[in-house]
Write a structure and sequence with these properties.
The chain has 162 residues and is mainly alpha-helical. It has one domain. Helices cover 61% and strands 0% of the residues. α2 packs antiparallel against α3 and α2 packs across α5. The protein is elongated and about 100 Å long. The mean pLDDT is 78.
């Protein structure tokens, strides 16, 4: 029982929660920035729809591999920060790397838990609905190409003067 208590004392420390919250925020913004720059990486459909899930193989890798690795990498990056607040009494670099990488791995669990509590207590879902997001901005070159390819409608007939 003492082992569980010692593990829980590490998990619920302010430094551990700080790393977890920072990883969630960094991962969120990384995903939004990358998917704004490359909208074809977004998942197109879910498993229940007949449409293809991904626009490309890169989109599949982004959604199925890279998005799961990003929080672990961000968490592991905190091992390079020299802070007793973040690492408590973990002293060796390998221990810090494993500790922080593990926090990054479980940071999404923290996010889902906090989101669920906020939804239950306030009735407000903190997940942004994709339909509320503005459409992606076209680059100037893409807009110019679209304008060249789209024919203009014919001019209206002039009014007849009797």
């Amino acid at each position: 029982m003492d082992d569980i208590n010692s593990v829980m004392s590490y998990v619920w420390r302010p430094g551990t929660l700080t790393i977890a919250v920072a990883v969630v925020i960094l991962t969120f913004f990384t995903r939004k920035i990358v998917e704004s720059i490359r909208p074809n990486l977004k998942k197109r459909a879910n498993e229940m729809q007949a449409a293809p899930m991904y626009a490309s193989a890169t989109g599949m890798w982004w959604n199925e591999v890279i998005l799961y690795a990003i929080p672990v990498l961000y968490g592991a990056a905190f091992a390079f920060v020299k802070s007793s607040f973040l690492h408590h009494d973990v002293m060796d670099f390998g221990g810090k790397l494993a500790f922080c990488g593990g926090i990054g791995w479980f940071s999404s669990l923290l996010y889902k838990g906090v989101r669920k509590v906020i939804l239950q207590k306030t009735g407000v879902d903190i997940q942004i609905d994709a339909s509320l997001m503005p459409p992606p901005v076209q680059s100037a070159q893409a807009a110019e190409t679209t304008a060249k390819e789209t024919p203009l409608p014919p001019p209206p007939n002039p009014p007849q003067i009797p």
